[in-house]
Amino acid sequence: CRVVCKAHKVAILPGDGIGPEIMDQALRVLTTAGKAEGAEFEFTRALVGGAAIDATGNPLPKETLDICKASDSVLLAAIGGYKWDTLPAEQRPERGLLGLRAGLNAFANLRPAIVPPQLADSSPLKREIVEGVDILIVRELVGGIYFGQPRGFGTNDKGERIGFNTDVYSEPEVERIARVAFEAAQKRQKRLCSVEKSNVLEVSQLWKEVVIRVAKDYPDVELSHMYIDNAAMQLLRNPKFFDVVVTGNIFGDILSDEASMLAGSLGMLPSASISGDGPGIFEPVHGSAPDIAGQDIANPLAMVLSAAMMCRYDLKLPKVADRLETAVNSALDQGWRTKDLWKEGTNLVKCSEMGDILVKLVA
Ligand code: ATP
Ligand code: MG
């Protein structure tokens, strides 16, 4: 009765734009899939982003962070929109997300790049290159050159103006992100590629040493190493080489956007920002799409796949995750498409209709 008796506590942050619409569908589907596997959820809704600014003046009210911290996991839809674009940067809706990541110490960003065979033709790359691609990029999110000190502007010894940043990682910072990546690899194809630039950078030499040391604890995972420039090339030339990729903040920023283009469609990609212990944040890669908000035409699949990631990584409900992912695949197999993915010969459905279809498929 362990699973049935303990409801999984999930903080629900619908946010802005299409956020509430896709969240509604994802929660219906998640609840039904959970029931089928004997898992229950306790959802607590909270405000974040523009919705929170309108209600409280603050993109991340303390109450929201408290609810998130008291939950097993956080499911977030999307943040931002035209309405708040004129606010100064430090009062913008996006600050809510940065505050949430910091508040939950979410140091690992997980971005799958999956190309379902049914959508392989929407990719800008050839079908035979992308069909069957299933990559997980694990990016370090709170360290490296984006945060390293010293940083700033100054003058060199010739009196010329300079800008500078510092790429720095400590051994514990590398070790904790490496462990997240090895553990993810254990749940997948058991291949991990560590991406760095150790032929030029000391910070990368340390990265590589630590990853090799941590690998001893995961003998079932096959580890490889690649320089960032080569990795950027291989991601387009032979993306099927990769299973899990682990890399630092700036390389991961670039590689995960590059990898998202393999799929050719924003509406399909989930992501997670996790801390290894404590609740993680699970959200679609796409934004709040204010241009189509309120019309019931958004694609809810990235949101549903984000809920699947949450079940796999935070709630330890792999069977519920499988159910959600299989349902998304079946819906595509059956030819159902929201407007963003619609092509001649497929069936156009609204956001809520896609929800209806998935509810039936996961039951
Ligand atoms: P952000 O800055 O929040 O990341 P963005 O400017 O990158 O936002 P998105 O909100 O992701 O942009 O939207 C980019 C385009 O993709 C828009 O035309 C939007 O309508 C479309 N889009 C994004 N997500 C979806 C979705 N789930 N379903 C359908 N269309 C979408
Ligand atoms: Mg964007």
UniProtKB/TrEMBL annotation:
Sorted UniProt keywords: Amino-acid biosynthesis, Branched-chain amino acid biosynthesis, Cytoplasm, Leucine biosynthesis, Magnesium, Metal-binding, NAD, Oxidoreductase
GO process terms (BP): L-leucine biosynthetic process
EC number(s) stated in the UniProt entry for this protein: 1.1.1.85
Biochemical pathway: Amino-acid biosynthesis; L-leucine biosynthesis; L-leucine from 3-methyl-2-oxobutanoate: step 3/4
MF (Gene Ontology): 3-isopropylmalate dehydrogenase activity; magnesium ion binding; NAD binding
Cofactor: Mn(2+); Mg(2+)
SMART domains xrefs: Iso_dh (SM01329)
Record domain Isopropylmalate dehydrogenase-like: where: 9-358
Catalytic activity: (2R,3S)-3-isopropylmalate + NAD(+) = 4-methyl-2-oxopentanoate + CO2 + NADH
Enzyme class: oxidoreductase
Cofactor-binding details, from the entry: Binds 1 Mg(2+) or Mn(2+) ion per subunit.
Gene Ontology, cellular component aspect: cytosol
InterPro entries according to UniProt: IsoCit/isopropylmalate_DH_CS, IsoPropMal-DH-like_dom, Isopropylmalate_DH
Subcellular location: Cytoplasm
Matching SUPFAM superfamilies: Isocitrate/Isopropylmalate dehydrogenase-like
Gene3D superfamilies for this protein: Isopropylmalate Dehydrogenase
Family of this protein: Belongs to the isocitrate and isopropylmalate dehydrogenases family. LeuB type 1 subfamily.
Quaternary structure, from the entry: Homodimer.
Function description: Catalyzes the oxidation of 3-carboxy-2-hydroxy-4-methylpentanoate (3-isopropylmalate) to 3-carboxy-4-methyl-2-oxopentanoate. The product decarboxylates to 4-methyl-2 oxopentanoate.
Protein name listed in UniProt: 3-isopropylmalate dehydrogenase
